[in-house]
Amino acid sequence: MRILPEHKIKEQKIEEHKVKKIAVQLTLMKGKLITLEGIDGSGKSTITRFLNSHPAFSSAVFTREPTTSWIGDAVYKAIESNTDHLAELMLFTADHANHIATLIRPALEDGKIVISDRYSDSRYAYQGVTLKERFDEPMEWVQQIHKGWTVVPDLTVLFDIDPEIAVRRCGKRGEQTKFEKIELLNGVRKNYLRLAEKEPERFVIIDTDRDLKEIENDVLQAITSIMEN
Ligand SMILES: Nc1ncnc2c1ncn2[C@@H]1O[C@H](COP(=O)(O)OP(=O)(O)O)[C@@H](O)[C@H]1O
Ligand SMILES: Cc1cn([C@H]2C[C@H](O)[C@@H](COP(=O)(O)OP(=O)(O)O)O2)c(=O)[nH]c1=O
C-alpha cells in the first residue's frame, strides 16, 4: 500500500469535500436545463466529458444536438453536403422539436438536470450567419420560429474563443465540418456574444483560451450558482 504524504491527503480531502458540496447542491436543483454553446473547437465536448465523468453529475442526463436520432442523421447528411441553408435550418429545427418531445421535457418533468452539448442558440448563431443573404435579420428570424414551443435553458454556458485558435484546435482533432471556417466562425462568435448581451441572466461566458483546469472550475461554479435563483 502506498502511503500518501500529508499535503496530498489534505488535497484529496479538499477535493472530496468539493465533490460532496457540488453533489448536495445538485440534489437540491430539480429539473434544470443547462446548455453548452460555442463555436466549433471551443472545447464543449471536452468539458461535457469532464462533467459526465464527475461523480457529482452521476444522475444528470447528458445529451446533444444534433441528436443521435434518425433526424440527427439527416442533419449530418445536410452538414456533409451542399444542402440549401433554409432546408438545413428546418432539419436542425425538426431535430430540436423531436429532442424536446422525446428527451428534454420528460427528463425535466422527472426532476432531472439535463446538460446539452449545443441546443437552440447554435441555430440562432450559426443559421443567423448562413441565412444572412435570405433575411434582413436572420438571427431574429430564426429565434422567432422557435417561439411558443422551445424550452428555454435555465443556464447557457458560452465557450468563447478566437476562431483562429479554435480552427487550429479542430485541425489537430482531425475532423472538419463545412462550418469550421474562420470567416463563418467570426460571424457565429459575434452572434453568440450578441445573444449573451441580450440575455445576461441566462448566459455565463467562459474564456476557453486557458488551462483546462481553470475552465473546469469556472463551469462548475457557473452550474452551482444557478442554485441561488
Ligand atoms: N483548454 C484547452 N486547451 C487546449 N486544447 C483544448 C482545450 N480544450 C479543448 N482542447 C482541444 O481542442 C480540440 C477541440 O475541443 P472540443 O472539446 O472537441 O471542442 P468542441 O466540442 O467545442 O468542438 C480538441 O482536440 C481538444 O482536445
Ligand atoms: C445544433 C446545430 C449545430 N450546427 C453546426 C455546428 C457544427 O459545426 C455542426 C455539427 O455540430 P457538432 O457535431 O456539435 O460539432 P462540434 O463538435 O465541432 O461542435 O453543426 C448548426 O449550424 N446549427 C445547429 O442548430
UniProtKB/TrEMBL annotation:
CDD domains: TMPK (cd01672). Keywords: ATP-binding, Kinase, Nucleotide biosynthesis, Nucleotide-binding, Transferase. The keyword Aminoacyl-tRNA synthetase does not apply. GO terms for molecular function: ATP binding; dTMP kinase activity. One of its GO terms (biological process) is dTTP biosynthetic process. It comes from Methanococcoides vulcani. This is Probable thymidylate kinase. Transmembrane segments: none annotated. Belongs to the thymidylate kinase family. It comes from the Archaea. PANTHER family: THYMIDYLATE KINASE, UMP-CMP KINASE 2, MITOCHONDRIAL. Gene3D superfamilies: P-loop containing nucleotide triphosphate hydrolases (3.40.50.300). Its EC number is 2.7.4.9. Residues 36-218 form the Thymidylate kinase-like domain. InterPro entries: P-loop_NTPase, Thymidylate_kin-like_dom, Thymidylate_kinase. The gene is tmk. It holds the Pfam family Thymidylate_kin. It catalyses: dTMP + ATP = dTDP + ADP. ATP binds at G38, I39, D40, G41, S42, G43, K44, S45. GO terms for cellular component: cytoplasm.
